[in-house]
Specification:
Low-confidence stretches of chain A: none
Radius of gyration of chain A: 19 Å
Largest sheet of chain A: 4 strands, antiparallel
Mean pLDDT of chain A: 93
Number of strands of chain A: 8
Structural class of chain B: mainly beta
Number of helices of chain A: 3
Oligomer: heterodimer
Number of strands of chain B: 8
Radius of gyration of chain B: 13 Å
Distance between the termini of chain B: 9 Å
Shape of chain B: globular
Structural class of chain A: alpha+beta
Strand content of chain A: 25-35%
Chain lengths: 155, 109
């Protein structure tokens, strides 16, 4: 795994995740031009029993926030829209090391589990080196395959 | 439908000072009902539970020496925290040891 050499590089891994998420939403919109994904309330009702004419994914009933009318939307498009609610925070006090999506029994995205580490050092009974300091001593690396940052043990 | 699905996570290798978070997707709400921690030296467990919005953290339960909840067995932390995509669950390992952390809940929307 390549060692991260700067905080900018670490932030770029998060930015790359956000780009992937945005690309997924853009692709879903392209493939489903009749759906206005940004206008849907993403709370999902029962499966409609029908399949999407475009991608053959099962469809669910959602509500259009403008008209409050039900709209059929396929699982793939719902998941792309829901994934866009999991953009990584780039400028927060913590930095995400790993993010794992969570799906329900119907294959709908319901949440994101993360492990995060403080950006800056913290003191106290058990002082913790922040990511910024850990990078300077070469202890942070990036795994391309799993898209995760990891911290090696102190030598 | 998603409502009523169990949300259940065990996260291993949570290092000192690290947090685990669970952020429901847009349109989803979850009630977290219990969480806990495993590892060595649990008497000095330094286990914090709260809410996070990506920038601010607020604690609702702390298990640490000297704190009023010092004697609370961390594996029995029972609670009802309602979380959504904006304000979501977090638990912090504030001990000097790497921990296994878990929580359980149920989707309510």
């Amino acid at each position: 795994m390549p060692v991260i050499s700067s905080i900018t590089e670490a932030m770029q891994t998060l930015a790359a995740r956000n780009t992937t998420i945005a690309d997924g939403l853009a692709a879903a919109k392209r493939e489903h031009p009749g759906l206005e994904l940004d206008e849907l309330i993403l709370s999902v009702g029962e499966p409609s029993g029908s399949l999407c004419a475009t991608c053959a994914e099962p469809e669910f009933s959602l509500i259009d926030k403008r008209t409050l009318q039900p709209v059929l939307c396929c699982r793939g498009a719902i998941n792309a829209a829901r994934m866009s609610s999991h953009q990584e925070v780039i400028d927060g006090p913590m930095i995400c090391l790993s993010a794992t999506p969570d799906y329900d029994g119907q294959g709908l995205l319901i949440g994101m589990s993360r492990i995060e580490h403080a950006l800056e050092d913290t003191d106290g009974a058990d002082p913790v080196m922040g990511i910024r300091s850990l990078i300077t001593v070469g202890r942070v690396s990036f795994d391309d395959a799993t898209n995760t940052l990891s911290i090696s043990a102190e030598e | 439908m998603a409502r009523g699905d169990v949300v259940n996570q065990i996260t291993t290798g949570v290092g000192t000072g690290q947090i685990i978070t669970y952020q429901p997707s847009g349109g989803v709400q979850v009630m977290v009902t219990a969480c806990g921690v495993a590892g060595t030296n649990l008497l000095a467990n330094h286990f914090l539970v709260g809410i996070y919005n990506g920038s601010s953290q607020a604690w609702m339960a702390i298990s640490a020496p000297g704190h009023p909840t010092e004697n609370v067995e961390p594996d029995l932390f029972a609670m009802k925290i309602f979380i959504d995509n904006t304000n979501y669950f977090m638990a912090k390992n504030d001990s000097g040891n790497t921990r296994i952390m878990w929580f359980t809940g149920i989707t309510t929307k």
